[in-house]
């Protein structure tokens, strides 16, 4: 999402001009009035910016029993839109710079549907208590994990993501011991880089990078991630020959950070070539444009490996799509999520939304790579299916996904197919979240 690209836009629809003229004469602080006018503003902004605005109702209708998010849900183009949401400007900016509040972990199911910790943020309450990927979850607040299953999903009942909320967890550790930990949700800074390492195999130096979200560093201009900058510098200093990027739980994030990464990884021959093109709705065609590669750094690669899953979405898929025309790209794991469209917040262009601290983030554009590939709502298929061995910590060569990538680098082929049933789990962590949190899912 790119707020900065649209800061200078001064276009307002006639409907909004009329709306502001009328509302400015009757401004009051009545909550009902505010909600009614907010819905009117949402309706007008969706008609102006929404990618599928031709599918919107032409006439505004008001149902005061609906929340603002409920009203937006009624407007969304349901066949394709799973993402448009409402938040606040502060929450939006905090999320895209990794300023979280919660316990600070994610979890995932193994092939037998046992629940394990999938990742832990270093400075979160869970990270500070020493939690690690590979711990098996036995109980939550004294109840066994299966008791939380509802249909094909789970309702873990961990409470709101606010400081002061406590929960108890019982784990089986990799050594077979049992431990019960109680932690309290707090504000923390999330790290995007969960793990990095170098493997030497068949005379090659192989970089492995577990990257969990495309988050920018607060206060940086132009927008970028210092954490990403440090990781790229590490791989360049290590003079890697190959790179494996693990995006299996990466739900997306900042397009600016995705560009930062792609500009470092693309071959020198792609410098100045098309990275992607944007397409907006029929009102905003003058903002359709192309973004070109600006090769940076000294990493030189002819191919790249991505580890993916159904939790790999948005900016993760954008990165895969944009690099594919210029280098050999291999996907290992399971198919990606399927989000070929993007969004940016529009409150800066709407006086009523801005006045009442409402951030509307609708789908506003689609992207296509240099080959014109833009339709991947079903996700990208993998070149080699492999299970998520979530019982293994990051970097463990017994992880089938990491092992398959290294095997291919060494042998030019993938290993024998996993004899276990490789399927998408019935529940993925990303399924537990909506709106803003769907892009950065963590508990």
**Which descriptor suits the 3D outline?**
globular
Count of β-strands:
22
- Give Rg in angstroms: 23 Å
- What is the distance, rounded to the nearest whole angstrom, between the alpha carbons of the first and last residues? 23 Å
Q: Biggest sheet: strands side by side, in what order?
A: 12-13-14-17-18-22
Let me know the CATH homologous superfamily of the largest domain: 2-enoyl-CoA Hydratase, Chain A, domain 1
- The quaternary organization reads as single chain
Give me the number of helical elements: 11
- How much helical structure, as a percent, in the residues? 10-25%
Q: What would you say the CATH architecture of the largest domain is? A: Alpha-Beta Complex
């Amino acid at each position: 999402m790119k707020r900065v690209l649209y800061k200078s836009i001064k276009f307002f629809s006639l409907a909004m001009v009329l709306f502001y003229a009328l509302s400015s004469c009757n401004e009051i602080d009545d909550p009902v009035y505010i909600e009614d006018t907010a819905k009117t503003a949402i309706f007008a902004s969706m008609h102006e910016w929404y990618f599928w605005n031709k599918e919107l109702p032409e006439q505004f209708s008001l149902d005061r029993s609906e929340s603002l998010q409920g009203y937006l849900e009624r407007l969304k183009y349901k066949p394709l839109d799973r993402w448009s949401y409402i938040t606040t400007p502060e929450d939006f900016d905090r999320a895209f710079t990794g300023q979280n509040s919660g316990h600070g972990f994610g979890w995932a199911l193994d092939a037998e549907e046992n629940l394990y910790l999938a990742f832990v943020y270093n400075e979160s309450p869970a990270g500070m208590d020493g939690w690690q990927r590979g711990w098996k979850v036995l109980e939550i607040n004294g109840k066994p994990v299966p008791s939380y299953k509802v249909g094909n999903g789970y309702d873990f009942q961990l409470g709101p993501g606010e400081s002061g909320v406590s929960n108890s967890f019982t784990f089986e550790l990799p050594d077979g011991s049992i431990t019960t930990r109680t932690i309290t949700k707090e504000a923390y800074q999330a790290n995007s880089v969960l793990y990095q390492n170098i493997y030497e195999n068949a005379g090659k130096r192989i970089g492995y990078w577990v990257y969990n979200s495309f988050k920018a560093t607060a206060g940086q201009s132009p927008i970028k991630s210092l954490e990403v900058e440090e990781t790229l510098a590490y791989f360049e200093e290590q003079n890697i020959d190959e790179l494996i990027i693990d995006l299996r739980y990466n739900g997306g994030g900042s397009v600016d950070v995705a560009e930062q990464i792609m500009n470092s990884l693309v071959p020198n021959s792609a410098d100045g070539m098309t990275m992607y093109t944007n397409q907006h709705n029929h009102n905003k065609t003058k903002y359709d444009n192309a973004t070109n590669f600006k090769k940076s750094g000294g990493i030189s690669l002819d191919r790249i490996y991505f580890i993916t899953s159904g939790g790999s979405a948005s900016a993760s898929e954008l990165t895969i799509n944009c690099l594919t025309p210029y280098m050999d790209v291999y996907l290992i794991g399971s198919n990606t999520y399927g989000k070929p469209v993007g969004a940016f917040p529009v409150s800066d262009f709407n006086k009523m939304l801005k006045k009442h601290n409402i951030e509307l983030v609708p789908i506003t554009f689609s992207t296509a790579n240099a080959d014109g590939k833009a339709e991947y709502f079903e996700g990208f298929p993998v070149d080699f299916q492999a299970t998520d061995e979530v019982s293994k910590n990051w970097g463990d060569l017994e992880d089938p996904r990491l092992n398959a990538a290294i095997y291919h680098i060494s042998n030019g082929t993938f290993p024998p197919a996993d004899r276990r049933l490789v399927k998408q789990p019935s529940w993925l962590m990303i399924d537990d979240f909506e709106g803003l949190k769907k892009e950065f899912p963590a508990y």
